[in-house]
Here is the input.
Amino acid sequence: MESPHTEALSLRGITKVFPGVLANDDVNLSARRGEILAILGENGAGKSTLMKILYGMYQPDSGTVSVNGRTVGIRSPKDALALGIGMIHQHFTLVPVHTVWENVVLGLDSSSGRPSDGKGAALELEKLGSRYGLEVDPLAVVADLSVGMQQKTEILKALYRSVSILVLDEPTAVLTPGEADNLFGFLREFRAAGNTVLFITHKLGEVMEIADRIEVLRGGRNAGSFLQGEVSERELAARMVGGDIPPVGEPSVRPAGRDVLEVRDLWVRGGRGYYAVRGVSFAVRAGEILGIAGVSGNGQEELADCVCGLARQERGEIRLDGRILPREDPGAVFRAGVGYIPADRHREGLVLDMTVEENLVLKNLSAYSRKGFLREGAMRKNAERLIGEYGIRPPLPGSRTASLSGGNQQKVVAAREIEAGRKCIVAVQPTRGLDLGAAAHVHRMLAAARNEGRAVLLVSTELSEVVSLSDTVAVMSGGEIAGIFPRESADLRTIGLLMAGRKGEPS
Amino acid sequence: MTAEKHGGNSLSESLTDPDGILSSLFFSSLSVFLGLASAGVLMLFLGHSPAAVYRDLFSFAFRDVYNIADIFAKAAPLILTGLAFAFAFRAGLFNIGAQGQFYLGAVTSAACALSFPFLPSWLLLPLCAAASMAAGGLWGGMTGYFKARFNANEFLVSMMSTYVAVAIMDFLVRSPLREAKGEYPQTDVLAEASWIPSFLSGTRFHWGFFLALAAAGAAWVLLWKTTLGFRMRAVGKNRSAARFAGIREKNVFVSVFLVSGAFAGLAGFLEVNGVQHMVVQGFNPLLGAEGIGIAVLGGAHPLGVVLSALLFGALKVGGLLVTQTSSVPSSIIAILEGFVMLYVILSFYLRHRLRRACARRRAAAGGEAP
Here is the structure.
C-alpha cells in the first residue's frame, strides 16, 4: 500500500556551516519504512554531521527534518529518541563499570513503558535479544564484554526505547568479520519488522551486501542516489571520490634517486590491541613524495607514528639510508634526520603556551644549549631565520604560539620539521583545518623539500591532496597497502575502489 | 581604526594571558582586595568595624622596626614552600607534600647541628642547609620516582607522604633526638654556631630571608634559562607534544620533585637554625598549605611568590597583634587568607572565559590570516 506514511524520514535542504567549513550544503535524504539506506562517502563528506543533525546533537542552519510525514524540530538526542530515532555511535557511549541492564536503563524516560528495575529489565532484554539475535547477559559488566557484545548492548539500548529508525555510524569498523555478519543478520530482521536503518559507511562491500538504497555524499553535497542492483561498485567509487581530476602539482624536478626510507613487512598494533598496520612494505626515494591515501583509521597514522619512533613495531624493519632507524625513541629518529609533521599539531606538534622561538627548538634542544643552560642568542637567531624563510606571521619570536592563526601555527611545525628532516619528512594531514592559502603554502614547502632531494612520506585522507602533490600514490586499506601507482597512471576510480576496501582489478 | 582595534586586542590579550605579568598582577591584586572586603563583611557580622580592624592590622604590622622585621622573618619560609609548589606546578605537577619535606628538612638540619656542635659556624651552617635540602629533596624525589616508575598520582603520594614524614619527625623528637631532660617531645637547643646570624639585631629578621630570595632567583634561572626548565615547562603545558619531541617525562618528574622538595627542605633549615633554634614536635603545621596559596596567588612565578609571601607575612604579624589586643577572633586571618585564595582560583576561571571570548571575537572579526 503506497501512502505518504511509508516515508519514515526525510531531510530537506539541510545546510550546516562550521567556522571555515561547509559541512552540509543543501543535502536531501529520505528513507522508507522497511528499508536499509546506506550513506556512502569519504571522510569529510558530511555523513556524520548530517546524522548528528538528525539525532539532535547539532542544529541545522537551514533545512527541515520530517519524521513519519510530520516536520519536527529535534533539539536534543532526547527529542530524537522520543521520535523513535536511535543512534549507534562509532565510539560506544556505555559506562564500562556498569552492567548491561544498568546501561540500558540509564536515562530511561519513565513514559517509555519499559521496566527500569533490574529484574524487569533483564527479562525484557532477554526477550528482545532472542527476538533479534542479540543475546547479551543482562547482568554482565560492560567492561568484560567483547567489542561486538558492547555493540549489541548499544543496539539493545536503542531497541529498549522502541526506536523505529536506527542510525549506525561505521558500525563494522570495530567488528570482526563474524561479528559483522551477525550485525547484518540483525539489521535484516529489524528491517523485516518494518523499521528503517541508516547505515553510514565508506566500505563498498558492505553497501553492496546490505543496502536497499544508496545515497552518496561528497564534499557535503548529495552526489547520487541509487537503488541496489542498478549501480556498479565502480560507479559508486567514482561518485564517492569525484570524477574530476584534481589540479596537478609541479612535477618532480629531478628523477627519483636511491631509496631513503625503506619499510619492510611492518606490523603495528593500534589503540585497541589489534593490528592496525599489517605487513606494510614500501620505499620512498630521494626526491620523491610518496602519498598514502585512504580513509582515516586504516592504519596510516599508526604507520607514521611507528616510523617516527612513537609506536611500537611488532614486526618488520624500518631503514633510513640503509641503516635501521632507532625504535621507540622519537628524539633519536629526529636526530637521524627524519622530520615529522603530526596529524594533530595542537596536541602533538606544539606547546601552544610556549613562544614561537621555544617551539622552533622543541625537538632539538641539545643543539641550543650548553651545559644545561639554554643558548638564548642561538635560539633567537634560529627563530628569526625560520620566521623569515617560512613567512610566519606575526614575525615575533617571543609571541605565544597560541596567539598565532592555525596556518601560522602549522608553519611553525613545518619549519621545525622540514629543517630537521634532512633526509626524510613524514607529514600526516599537513593541511587539515587550514584555509586554501595556508594549505598551498604548506604544499609548496613540502614540494621544495622534495626538490632538494629529500624523501617525503605524505599521509592524507584527502585524495586530491595526495594525488596533486605526490610522485607516487599508495592506497592503504585495512592496515595493508592495497596498491601503489606512479602518479601518471593513478586512476581515481581504481583508487576509490581500493580506498573503499575493494581489491581493484586493473584496467 | 585597525590600529585602535589592535591596541584594544593587545590590552585584552595581555590581561588574559595566563602567563602574563600584567594579568597576574591585576588579578592577584583584585583577589586580595576582594578577600579583604569579604573578610570585612564577616567582621561586620561579628560586630567589628572592618575599617578599624584593617587600620589596626596595618598599623601594628608596620608599627616599629621589630614588627616590620618580623614580616621578613615570617615571609622567608613561606617563600620557600611557595616555591616548592610553584616549581612543580610549572611542570604541571602538584607537590602537596611541602609540609612533610619541610619537616624532614628541619629535623635533618637539627640533627646535623646537634651532631657537629664543635664545627665552626662557616662550616656548620652550609652543612645544615645542604642536609636540609638533601632530606627535603630526596623525600620529594620519592614522589617523583613513584610517579615515573608506577604512574602513581603525585598529588596523592605527596600528600600522604606528609603523614609519614610527620610520623618520622615524631619518632625522632621522641627518641634519638629528644632533649637531654627527656621532658617534652623536642630537641635540645642547638649550638649557637649553627644559628643563622641576625640581619637586624634585636629582631627575628635573619639572613635566611636572603637565602630564600636567592632560592627564588635560582628557581627563576632554572625555569627560564636551563634545559631542565624548558623541558619541564613543555611537559607541564603539553605532555603529549613533549613526548613527541622526545622529552623523557619520567626524568622530568623525578628532577622536578627533587628540586621542589629541596626548596621545602630548605625552609626547615631557615625555621630551625634561624628562628626556633630547636625542633619542637609539630611546629609550623600550616607552612606547606600556606605555600600552596602563596604560589597560586603569585601566579607560580618566583617574583610573585616572594611578593605574596611578604603579604602573608604582614597579615600574620598584623593579624596576630590585632587578635591579641582585641576581641576579634584569631581565625579571621585564616578566613581572610582563605578568601584571597578562593578569589585567585576564581580569577583563573574568569581569565579563561575572557580569553575565549576575545579569541571568538577576533575570529568573528577577521578570521584567520594565512
About this structure: The mean pLDDT of chain B is 89. Residues 331-366 of chain B form the longest helix (36 residues). Residues 106 and 269 of chain B are 5 Å apart (CA to CA).
